[in-house]
Amino acid sequence: MVRACAIQYLKDHHASQSEIDLAINKEIEKSFLWMPAFVELIAEYNNNRKKYPTLESFYPNLIQGFVDASNNIPALLKLQETVK
User: Fold this and answer.
1) pTM score, whole prediction
2) Which of 5, 6, 8, 78 ranks highest by number of CB atoms within 10 Å?
3) Which residue ranges make up each domain of the chain?
């Protein structure tokens, strides 16, 4: 979560797309394979604060994100190979 939030911070503070991509790829290289999906989840949370007033209210989405990632390990491992 913290790593995804750090990448969201880059986005919010006008980092270039290449800097954002580099940050995501560094996390994937460290085996945080779900990073692209979690960056999207953090953006969804930030963009829908009326619907999700607290992080706790967003937990079901985060849990589903981990479930989705665990069901997609082979594809995520292939993604990791492409960024090395």
Assistant:
1) 0.82
2) 8
3) 2-83
